[in-house]
TrEMBL record:
Keywords: Cytoplasm, Transferase. This is Sulfotransferase. It holds the Pfam family Sulfotransfer_1. It comes from the Eukaryota. It comes from Pleurodeles waltl.
Length: 297
């Protein structure tokens, strides 16, 4: 077994196999076992760096695959319909789940099951522009029990850029997955695509999954995946009460593009632009950092 390395700056975190975990929310044994996890050809994995639209994709994919909840899954939470592969919080026997099994993960590409890396099953990777991720992450840190709150955004930014937050740096996660996408049956989609045209994004996801929805079904999926619907749907924000120290209802906080401007200074934003250029310069990915004029109300 590899070594567990504490993160000096944050007692809630540790590193294992090069990835930053929340100490009390994982075990090294579970991570090691994943290498041999038996992936079915019909399995669908939704993967995202934290605060990038993970729960949103859980909702969309489970609505698509569960025929708008008509098979009884409306009575269960997103976290049960599409459990985390790295932490079995809902205590399910994954080998007994009917196909198609849905899974969710925040893991880097190199820690997911080996056969997934050999193109068995499908991966939908959702990525969000790093500035909005940072803003969302900063607020989230203040809501949950398993995180050390930063006194201000500047402090958070330093910690964040050093990778001393859950899941390490956004840059490593996104670059890692994107650069290794050829190893997977892979759909890369951005949070901003979902925001700007949810209906087209749902169609794109359906095409990737080989699912055909009629117009009515499509509208239902879209309607139940809007920010407004999800904020009041008790099955979406299914994290346990004790996970939150405050503002559980604000997990669905703003759900928009460009909120980073409310928290970042110009200097901080320019510094991130520079790092972005250095780390992402060669990758053909484009993120939207502002709501385009034509989409503004
Ligand atoms: N339907 C819908 N539409 C628009 N935005 C949405 C939606 N659902 C979730 N969200 C926003 O996604 C952010 C949370 O990301 P994650 O689900 O990845 O968080 S987590 O890592 O699983 O805790 C968080 O972003 P912020 O609002 O910027 O904090 C959520 O509000």
């Amino acid at each position: 077994m590899a070594e567990i390395v504490p993160v000096a700056e944050d007692p809630f975190l540790c590193q294992y196999k090069g990835f930053t975990f929340v100490k009390d929310a994982f075990t090294p044994e579970d991570i090691d076992l994943l290498e041999k996890f038996e992936v079915r050809g019909s399995d669908i994995f939704q993967v995202a760096y934290p605060k990038s639209g993970t729960i949103w994709m859980q909702q969309i994919v489970s609505l698509i695959c569960n025929e708008n909840y008509r098979n009884g899954s409306e009575n269960t939470t997103n976290a049960v319909r599409s459990p985390w592969i790295e932490s079995n919080f809902s205590n399910q026997d994954y080998s007994k789940r009917p196909s198609p099994r849905l899974f969710t993960s925040h893991l880097p590409y190199y820690l997911v099951p080996k056969s997934l890396r050999n193109k068995r099953g499908k991966v939908i990777y959702v990525a969000r522009n790093p500035k909005d991720v940072m803003a969302s992450f900063y607020h989230f840190e203040h809501m949950i029990t398993l995180a050390q709150e930063s006194p201000d955004f500047e402090h958070f930014l330093k910690k964040y850029l050093a990778g001393h937050v859950f899941a390490g740096t956004w840059f490593d996660h996104v670059c890692g997955w994107y650069s290794n996408r050829e190893d997977f049956n892979f759909l890369f989609i951005t949070y901003e695509e979902l925001i700007l045209d949810l209906r087209s994004a749902v169609i794109k996801i359906c095409q990737f999954l080989g699912k055909q929805l009629d117009d009515h079904e499509l509208e239902k999926v879209v309607e139940q995946s809007t920010f407004k619907s999800m904020k009041v749907d008790p099955k979406t924000n299914a994290m346990p009460e004790d996970f939150f120290k405050k503002d559980k209802e604000n997990f669905f906080r703003k759900g928009t593009i460009g909120d980073w401007k409310n928290i970042m200074t110009v200097a901080q934003s320019e510094m991130i632009d520079k790092i972005y250029q250095e780390k992402m310069g060669d990758l053909p990915i484009k993120f939207v950092f502002d709501i385009p004029r034509e989409n503004q109300a």
